User: What shape does this take?
Amino acid sequence: MDVALKIWRYDPESGERELKRYEVDAPDWATLLDVLDLIKDRMDGTLAYRKSCRMMICGSCGMRMDGAAVLACKTRMYEIAGAGHEPVISAMGNLPIVKDLVVDMDPFWAKMRAMKPWLEPGYLEPEEEREFRVSQAQMNVIQKEALCVNCGCCVSECNAMESSPEFFGPAALAKGMRFVGDARDQQTVERLEAYNDEHGIWECTRCYFCNERCPKGVDPRDAIAKLGAESVKNGIDRDMGAKHAKWFVSSAKTTGWLREEELIPHTQGIVSTIRQMKFAMRLASHGKARLLPIPHTAKDVNEARRLYNIVKQQGRDGAAGIVQGEKALSRIEFAEETAEREAEEAE
Ligand code: SF4
Ligand code: SF4
Ligand code: FES
Assistant: This one.
C-alpha cells in the first residue's frame, strides 16, 4: 500500500520546526512505527523517534497522530491509507521536545519517583520460604493500574497539566493507586497524604482524555477517583475537592437533592462564602442560582438513603465501590460484545 503522512520535524540546534511530507510503499500490515522505520531506512536517516519492543510493551513509541496520543506500534495504517487520509505525526504534548518525535521524559520519571513506586510491606512478612499470597479479589483492585507501560500518552493529553505543569498527572497517580490498592503495602495513609498535595489528585479537571487515550486500558482517571475515595475513607479530606465530594453525598442522603447553594459554605467556609455573595446575587438575579436551600426532601429520598446504606453495609466505600462499578461495566460490555458476535455469526 502507498502511505503518505506529514511529520512535524524539530531541529534542536536551530530551534526550527517544519512540517515535512513523506510517501512510502509499505506492506498492508504495517503500523505507524513500521512506516517510520521505512522512512528512516529509505528516505531520511535523520528522523528521530523512540522504539524498542514493537509490541505495545515497552511504552517507548508514544507520539501524536492528528493531535491525539497513540502508540506507533499499535496503530495500523491500512485503513488510514485506504481512506486517502494523510495523518500529521508530532511529538507528545506536555513534555519538552528533544528532537522530531522524541520528548524529554525526565519530568515524567520525576513524578513517577515521587509516588514511591515500590512496595512498602512494613513488618509484614510472607510465610517462611513462600512468597506473599494475594487473592484474585485483592488483585482486582489494581488489575488495570498494573497494566501501565509508562508510555506517557495520558500525560500528553492531560488538560490539568497544560495549565499546571506541576500536577502529578495521570500516569504517576495511576502508579500511586497501584501501590495504595496493593494488599501487601502498609504505607496507605502516608501515600495518600503525599498524593493529596496541592498538585495532587484534586487538581485533576476530570476531562477523561487520559482514559480515552491510554493504549493499555489503565483508565488513569478512574485510578484518580479511587485515590480520592480512599483519601475520604481514611479521613484525608482537607482539600476542597474532597469536601465537595463529601457534601454531595451528605446532601443526597439527607434531602435527596444536590443542594448546590450550600456547596460553597461547606467546601470553602464562611469567609469565602461572604466574599462570593455579590457574585451569587448576580447569578440569582439571572435565574442561574438559588440563594436559599430547597426547604423539602425529595419524594424518593429513601431510595438514596437505601443506596448509601447498602454501600456502607457491604464495605464498598473507598476504591472498592469504583472497582465494583468497573466490574459491572465490563460484564455489560462483555455481554454486548458476545451478543454482537453471535448475531454476526448467525447471519
Ligand atoms: S481526567 Fe484528569 S488526569 Fe486525566 S487527562 Fe483529564 S485532567 Fe488529566
Ligand atoms: S496510564 Fe496508560 S497512557 Fe498513561 S503511561 Fe500508563 S499505559 Fe501509558
Ligand atoms: S515500541 Fe514498545 S510500545 Fe511501541
The longest helix spans residues 319-346. The CA atoms of residues 142 and 182 lie 7 Å apart.
